[in-house]
Structures are given as structure tokens and as C-alpha cells.
Amino acid sequence: MSGKTGFEVNAAGRKVPVEANGKTQIPFPGLGKQLPQGRKAAPPVRSAAYYPADGDKRVPDLKTALEKCGLKSGMTVSSHHHFRNGDFIALKTLQAAAEIGARDLMWFPSASFPCQAPVVDLMEQGVVHHIEGSMNGPLGDYCSQGKMKGLGVLRSHGGRWQAIQDGEIHVDIAVIAAPTADPFGNCDGSHGPSACGSLGFALADSIYADHVIAVTDNLVPFPCVPWQIQGNNVDYVVEVDQVGDPSKIVSGTTQITRSPERLRIAKQIATLLRDAGIMKDGFSFQAGAGGIALAFVGYLKEMMRQDGVRARFVRGGSTSYLVDLLNEGLTDYILDGQTFDLAGVASIGENPRHLATSPFTSYNHHGKGNFASMVDAVVLGATEVDVNFNANVVTHSDGRLLHGIGGWQNCLHSGCTILAIPSFRDRIPVIVDQVTTLTGPGELIDVVATERGIAINPRRTDLLDALKGSKLPIRPIEEIKAEVERFCGGPPQKPVLTDDPVAIIKWVDGTVLDTVWKVGK
Amino acid sequence: MAPGAGQAGNDDTRSDCFVRITPANGGGLDLQIESKVELYYGDSIRKQATAALDAAGVRDARVEVRDQGALPFAIEARLEAAARLAGYLDGKPDLPEPAPLPPVSDRNRLRRSRLYVPGNDPKLMIGAGLHGADGVILDLEDSVHADAKDAARLLVRNALCCIEFGHSERMVRINPEPMAIPDLAAVIPARPDLILIPKVEDADQVARVDAAINRILGEVGEHRPIWLMPILESGKGIENAFEIARASERVGALTIGLEDYTADLGVVKTRDGAETLWARSRVVNAAAAAGVQAIDSVYGDVADEEGLRAWGERSRALGFQGMGCVHPRQVPVVHDAYSPSEQEVDKALQIVHAFEEAQKLGLAVVSLGSKMIDPPVVERARRLVEQARKAGRVQEEQS
């Protein structure tokens, strides 16, 4: 931590630092209160005169590319998580930067994964100063223990675009790992031996970064089609043996839950969509790749079939479950942010109705609208939720960093936001008086669905009316909490946290929603 | 295990805990607790352990607790079981906060489904009432290893005390004699609604269980009804079905265990069950003769939903009123299979209505349209409407 700064209590009642990593921060002023001004950031103007006329931008290796981009100490280097826990390139980039002698870099990944745990060593050596991006596993522990030199900054996928676009983050060098690319720098994620689907998370970096390096293990002659990343934004192209481990590129978690309690939650959410009249011709929904969300898609599919209902679009992370929906004609389109399994990868490569989207189209709050608020219903997870429906998705109940925000905050803007959560995990109640880390304001969370009942946010009188007469076990959230606390033996002890901030949680508009504190002993 | 030491529970199973108590000569309590939820419930677990050990009379001993996030009802059961196995036999249980006691169970209540829950696995107990089964069976017999019977019976007792099972009837399957007696001694004071008696071959077995229950209820001063459901699992049991069904006022239902029965006959259990048709029909007939419910066995293939549905529909047609479920996903299928169709309910309502109209007009003959309706048809229609109403399948008549 770079010394103590001042704190303010924001509109959500959370104590947040007014400065982070040398930049002034705006405490969250309440939903819709932060109005951006000024113009978007932009990279320097370039001339084709300085790039090869034959379009061949190849250089021998990553180190050379970084040197040619003018890598210096203190710069911001970005990478992306399209290969998830199978990524080879982000770590290699930072290690090459270390060889060049760069220090105090800010690493700006769209998300980090356990495969990047050796970045801890680079932080110990002073090569990497701090990380702004999701942290979990060893990186999360390192940050939670207060060992990182700067403050962690956690943003949603949309918030990351917003931060780059608004000039809050200036990316000096973006390194884009591409399953297929041509020598000009056009990149595609949907084909090649390491195909991962979309390259949407790298799009902002390709547009706004000073320098862009494309790294691929499947170089094709110009043109690489489709060009999800335009070569016109790319400085150098590097060929490597492998960009990632294909077996780990897809998420390992795309299994339908087998727990009867969780299946019950999934079925009830599907029933809720039907009973509330949300499931109707032309509707849309989004569900992630968690066990409950996948089971939910299965149940909803059955109900859509029974009632002869067809969706206009569904939003990924896509999985075989969504692909089946598309192939069976139960949805017109999949608008896909990322691909979670090989069926999704194959579909996005072959089916013109399965489209890759980016955080700009899907989630960016500082744009002329985005897709997230147009989705009729979304099913999300959470680690904790309080009796006012405020939720935590980034830390354990003990305050340790657990998950990135991902698209979670952005998805809260849907027409009906449903948190699908077990009422307790290992004796620890999930419904609490106050969440450890506020990640989403309760105003935007409409339904908390547990195996012991479904709580509807009292603000949603329309939803409560629509569900009158439904056989669903709709109960006040306080009642579910009391029941769980009874058999758990009372509410849990409060975690011991210190007064030292280790990370901040940004809201979708760039303001600071909450602080993650160093964990105590 | 050291001589004199007692242990119970598992430390490799989520929501369970392992306890080992090694008595010592003096030195007080040496309490070692490791818990997955130390940060959240460490203090609570220490407090509970200290109180439970005190109640059990454990004063000088080394006590190891390795907890995987067990709920208080399970922690108490493990501590108490370990204490008893270590020789502390005179202690009293220090039970966690009890759940509200549900209403008394009706002798003829709806018993379409009964969901089996292993009696020594706390993880599956807490959610067992969520699946809408008409009954939940906490099983002390086949799903509990011989070494774990003592521990399981305390866990089942605590589950009955502390867990809400929603609308499900709270059932316990005890072991055959002689273990039946300590099973009953443990669970009866916790007021289950129904006891399943396995491997019943004659009426005396039921009578002995009945007597034991009466004795225990007398001791605890409790008069809440507890029903019996004998399970016939052998050729001899089937032959004595009627006597067994009449063996006690407490018998509310008669059921059959097909795995053991087919083994006794030396035949293979098939998907359509032709080999057990006679035995099952015998159970139905004996139950009808004795005025109790006839309940079918289980369908073991959890993945075969169509097979289950077909079995259930045939079973209902034979005269059974329900069957066992080995997985929660079987519950809705079983409920469908044992419920009358909409057409059946409509027809029955018409018949009952016609009968009531005829009564009002003082007519001796009931007719519906051009058809005469015989009294047994009216009676069957009444029963069907009553069953359908219990199952929530009757749109209440507009007045």
C-alpha cells in the first residue's frame, strides 16, 4: 500500500478512499447520479508510412515486439482472459518485460486466473507494481494480505471498457493472444487449434492503446476472416508455438449441478419467468455457466417447448445448453460475450446467428445504451446478499478476494435480475445483515432465489403482482434468513478485517462503490 | 482407536464432523477443535462442545473435533455418540434449538411418495423436506453401515428434533430386532410420525414394536400418535400379510420390499415387475381387508424417469396409493403417477354431485345422464375426490 489516503463514506454508506494509485476517485454518489463529461480518450495518430506496405508486421518474438513498442518502467501493460486458465501469453509478456529490465508495471488484465500465479514473484521482484483487474487464488490472497504495492482496482467488463474509453486507464501496450491471425494483425478467436470464440475483451485495448501486439499460434495468409480485431490497430505480430492450453481454454465449471437443492432453485427460477409472464415470444435472457444457471436453461427450455415460446435472443457466456436452444429454433440469436465450452466455440465459428459481442455493445455504461438493460431476465450468483438485496460477488464472507466482477454488475441492469444462491454454504448463511463487500446495489436486484424460498425485492411491486397466484414459495427475505440462522446456530461471527484498504470496487460508471480491506489474523 | 476411546462421524464428508473422545484419569478436558468454518462459528462450536460434553458427563478426556461445516444438530449427535461409545452412558443430551413441532399426522393422510434419506449423513437431512415428498424416511437400516448404527440413531433423533421437514410426514425406518429396540428408544421421544418396520414376517414382530413404543411413550408422557408401516420382504411375510396388517391399531399402511422379496424367491427383479405381481396384489388385498393403505416398493433406477412413471401408473391401477423414492427427482413423477387424471376427477365430481342431488330430492336411485349409478361407484368416486383434494388437484367448486 502506497501510504494512507483520505476516506469518504459514499452514498451506499461504504467507506472508500478518495484516491487510488495516485488518481483521484469519485465515491459512488447513488445510481444514475454520476454524469460523465468531456471527450473520449484516443491513441496517438499514426501513419501508414511507418508500417510495411506489404502488411507484414511480424517480428521474431514477444521481447522484440515489447522493445519496439518502447516498453519502459511504470507503463501499463494489458492482456485478456479469452484462454481463461489455459493462457500462456500474459505471463510470458510480463516475464519478457522483466528480461528487458522494466519495473513497476501496472498489469491490466481483463481477468486473471490461477495459471498466472507466478505474477506474485514478479510483484515481489518489483517488475509488476500492482494489478487492476480481477484477482483470485494466489493473486487474490497476495492482494488480500496487503502485499501488493498499489491498490487493486476491480471493475466489471463494462467498467473496464469505460475506464479505457474515458481515459481513466491509459494502456501503453496491449498484448492480444489470438487463436488465428494474419501478418497484418487481423485477429480471430473463432477458428484455429486454440479457438476460444470471441476476442471481445481485447477490442477496447486494440482501439485505445498506444501500442498493440498480436500473438498467435495459427498464422494464416492475409486476410484472416472474420477480423474480430482489426489489423489497422495492430503494431506487431508475433508467432508462437502455442498461445494456450486448449483443454483449459474452456471453463471447467460448465457442469449442471447434481445437488437436488440447487436443481430445485433452477427449476423455480424457470417457473418464475413463466409465471411472471417474462417468458413470452420475443423475450430474452442471460444465464452464466454456473451449475444452477445451466440447470435453469434446461428447465426453461422444456417450458418454452411446452408453451411454444421462442426467444429473440439469449446472451452468453455460451455453452452447449444455449447452442441447443439456438439449434432447436427456441432462440433467434445468441449474442455471446465469451464462450465457455467447445460446443459454444464450434457454434460461434459456424452459425451466423451466434454472434460475438464486446463489452462495448454489451455492457459499457458510458455509451449510447448497451445490451445489458435490454435483456428481460438474468440469472446470476453471489457470495452474500443482505436483507436490502445488496450483494457481494467478489469476496468470501471473510473478506478474501474470491471472484472478479466479470459482467455481473452490468447484468444487474436487466429487466429482472435474479440471484440464484443456496441459502447457506458449509453452515455459513448467505443472507446477512450487511454484505462484507458491496458489489451490487440492492435497488437493481429483483429476486433472491434460494432452495428455501424466493424473496422478491419489495421495490418490485409489479413483479409481486404478476406472481400473485403462482405456487412458488415466495417469502420475505428476512424470514428465509431467520430460518437459516436457526439451524445454523445463529448468525456467523464477523470476519476480522483491518483498516488498510487493499482494493477498491468500481461501479459501472467509474465511481467507487466499496473497499476491500486487508484481512486480519 | 485407543482402548476406551469412542468416535463418531466423518471428517471427509461435507456438513459432517468427526469426534473422538479418549477418557483420561484427571487433567480435565483437552478439547482440540479444527473447523472449516472456524472463522464464522469457531466460538459457537467450542461453546456447544463444552456444554454437550458437560451434559454427557465427560470431565477428564482428550476430545478431538474435526468439523466440515456440520450444523449444530449434527455436532451434538457426534459428540454424544462418541461420549457413549467411550463409556459415558449416563449423560443427558444437550440438544440445539428444536424446530417447531408439526401438526399431528393423520392415519389416512396422503402417502404417495416417501423419500429415503440415509440415517448417518447429515448433509442430506437438512434439505430433505424441500422436495415436496409426502413423507421423508430417515433410514437407520440398509443405508447405515453396521459400525455406525449407534451414531446414526442419535443423528436421526436430532434431525427429528431440530429440522423442519415442511409438509412431509416424518418417518423412521428402524432396524430388525434386536437393534429395533435401541432404535426406538432413541427416536420415539423425538416424536416421529411413522415407523417403518423392516423384514416383517409375522404379526408378533409388529406387536413387539407396538409394545415398545407404548412403553417409551408412557415413560416420556407423550400421547402423540405414531403410525406403523410394516415392510414385507419375504415369502413368509407375504403369506401373513393380513395378520400383519391387523397386528396393531398403529398400523396405517402396509408395504413391500421387492429387493429382498425377489432374492427370497430366487427370481430376477424386472422392469415391469411381472414376477412380483402376485405378491404385490396380495399386499393390496390384505391392506384393503385390514382397512390400511397399500404402499408399493421403490424404483431403483433414478435415471429412468419413464420406467418410474410406467411403474407408478401400473402400481396405482393395482390398488397401491404410493411408493418409495430413492432420489428427490422421483418425487414429482411419483406424485403424477399416483394422482387421478383431470378427467377422472371431473367424472368423480359429477358422480358425487349427482348423488348429493339425489339425496336432497330423496331419490333412492342415483343417475347421471341416462346412466344409473350403483352405490359402490359413488363410494369410489367419493374416495377419489378426497384423495385428489388432498393432493391439491381439485379446483374448488364455485358456489
UniProtKB/TrEMBL annotation, chain A:
GO terms for cellular component: ATP-independent citrate lyase complex; cytoplasm. GO terms for molecular function: citrate CoA-transferase activity; lyase activity. Transmembrane segments: none annotated. GO terms for biological process: acetyl-CoA metabolic process. InterPro entries: Citrate_lyase_asu, NagB/RpiA_transferase-like. It holds the Pfam family CitF. Coiled coil: none annotated. Keywords: Lyase. This is Citrate lyase subunit alpha. It comes from the Bacteria. Residues 20-39 are annotated as: Disordered.
UniProtKB/TrEMBL annotation, chain B:
Keywords: Cytoplasm, Lyase, Magnesium, Metal-binding, Phosphoprotein. One of its GO terms (biological process) is oxaloacetate metabolic process. InterPro entries: Aldolase/citrate-lyase_domain, Mal_deCO2ase/Cit_lyase_ACP, Pyrv/PenolPyrv_kinase-like_dom, Pyrv_kinase-like_dom_sf. The keyword Phosphoprotein applies. Its cofactor is Mg(2+). One of its GO terms (cellular component) is cytoplasm. SUPFAM superfamilies: Phosphoenolpyruvate/pyruvate domain (SSF51621). One of its GO terms (molecular function) is lyase activity. It is found in: Cytoplasm. It holds the Pfam family HpcH_HpaI. Residues 112-328 form the HpcH/HpaI aldolase/citrate lyase domain. PANTHER family: HPCH_HPAI ALDOLASE_CITRATE LYASE DOMAIN-CONTAINING PROTEIN (PTHR32308:SF0), LYASE BETA SUBUNIT, PUTATIVE (AFU_ORTHOLOGUE AFUA_4G13030)-RELATED (PTHR32308). This is Citrate lyase ACP.
